[in-house]
Amino acid sequence: MPKIALRPSPPPLETNDVAIVGAGTALWFLAFVVLLPFHSTLQAQGHGHGNWQWVCLSGGLLGLIGLWYCRARRAAILRDRAAGTDQP
User: Which residues 6+ apart lie within 8 Å of 46 measured at CB?
Assistant: First the structure.
């Protein structure tokens, strides 16, 4: 089978990562707050249902780390563009 020449990669897509991660983090914290009143009910049903709100809390906390990372990444990209070292 003959080899086919590869096409060049398209340029990276510009997105607002901070907004996307921020929305996801807010949803995790919202789910935590919504599940808090049902803690005793979920615990009484067994099968690990009492852990759901803690999963939501950890998702929100990890989302805060993701927000920090995305903001630092965005700042580094803007710094590089301002310095004129834009890489392909």
Answer: none
